[in-house]
Amino acid sequence: MHVPDGFLDAPTSVATGVVAAAGVGIALRRARAELDDRTAPMAGLVAAFVFAGQMINFPVGAGTSGHLLGGALAAVLVGPWTGALCISVVLLVQSLFMADGGLTALGTNITLMGLVGVVVGYAVFRLVLVVLPRKLGSVPVAAALGALVSVPAAATVFTLLFAIGGTADVSVGKVLAAMVGWHVVIGIGEAVVTGLVVSAVIASRPDLVHGARGLARRTALRTGEVAA
Amino acid sequence: MGAGHGHRLHFHGHSVVHRAPAHLKILLLLGFVLTVVATPREWYPVFGGYLALLLGVVLLARVPLTYLLPRMVVEVPFLLFAALMPFVAEGPRVALPLGGWEVSVSESGLMAAWGLAVKGTLGVLASLTLAATTEPTDVLRGLQRLRLPDLLVQIMGFMIRYLDVVTSDLGRMLTAMRSRGVDPRSPRHWPALARTLGALFVRSYERGERVHLAMLSRGYDGRLPGDAR
Prior knowledge:
- The complex is a heterodimer of chains A (228) and B (229).
- Chain A has 228 residues and is mostly helical.
- Chain A has a two-stranded antiparallel sheet with strand order 1-2.
- In chain A, helix 1 packs across helix 4, helix 3 runs parallel beside helix 7 and helix 4 packs antiparallel against helix 5.
- Chain A is globular, with a radius of gyration of 19 Å.
- Chain B has 229 residues and is mainly alpha-helical.
- Chain B has 2 domains: 120 residues, no CATH class; 80 residues.
- Chain B has a two-stranded antiparallel sheet.
- The chains are: A mainly alpha (228), B mainly alpha (229).
- At the A-B interface, helix 1, helix 2, strand 1, helix 4 and helix 7 of A face helix 2, helix 5, helix 6, helix 7 and helix 8 of B.
């Protein structure tokens, strides 16, 4: 569910565009520091993965369906900077090539899902990981909690933007209650799927999960005589 | 697996609109939607003018409307939201004749719904026109000319190049699930779906690593050669 054109007024759209551009700029630099010259192919492939994951729709109830947003998932799997970059690229491509999400609302969408969703999701993930025992099994739980919080957090920021630059005369309290209530439900689904996906990746390739770095058990290299 | 580089929205053609430089089209689209969003919603005739302008461009591009209209469904959830506005908004209420009944709705909510619907629809139609008349590689080249950071354009390029590969990978996995009696949409089968997505992530990541190595062995140094795009 992307914010379309005309939802927020022009000044707010331009302001969120500036925020999004600054955020993507920082994410680009940090991702490059992390991935070096692997950045372009790796981030491109992860973005394609996020896009594919978003294509699966789940029935949310009342005849509507929702899909995975993937902000917290991407942050845990490939790190917050690359994750934010990948989500932003997905939104860019959806807006420019698929007319999904308005071009003037691109800044808003990137700010909400690419920056707020990823940063909040990753921050909660890190906090929970501090509390939980230091073992691999804690990572999916922390990822799920990060996802659970990230979705209503993005909804709250949207309500804030709506209060500033909304084009409808609706009481902010009502919008906040409806948006947050609805997105907690979506967040629960997001949390379950995120936790399960992270645990599935950890089961086969724990070395690929950015959020599990330093937790994977290292098998000592054993050397010995070989019988001739 | 080499199939499907085309993208779902592009409508092949050789019209003036198709041949126009991509960076120009992107700038025009951005200018157009910004103008639409900034136009006060009470200026009804102006929106008619915008629509006429847009339809003129579509006609010039010789893209049939029957091709564009079904693709406007991306807008539907948002139109439902707009339709809700008159009922939840504040302010003085007016009676609206609706199928024999008089429904009391908020006046400002009605205006908001009109504004959202008309601006959103114009935005979607304009974006669709760009997507239908411009090859993805041309859009990327246009973005490059507009000084979008080179790395960002490269990432977008890789995403678009491998989008169909990854989604058809997922498609085959979902087919395999369904043929074994698993419904990927049902929450009951989320564990199976999550393992599928986990496997898809590992596959995509490893594909990225292989692509990177293949690029290195062909002399990649962080920049793509100019004619490759």
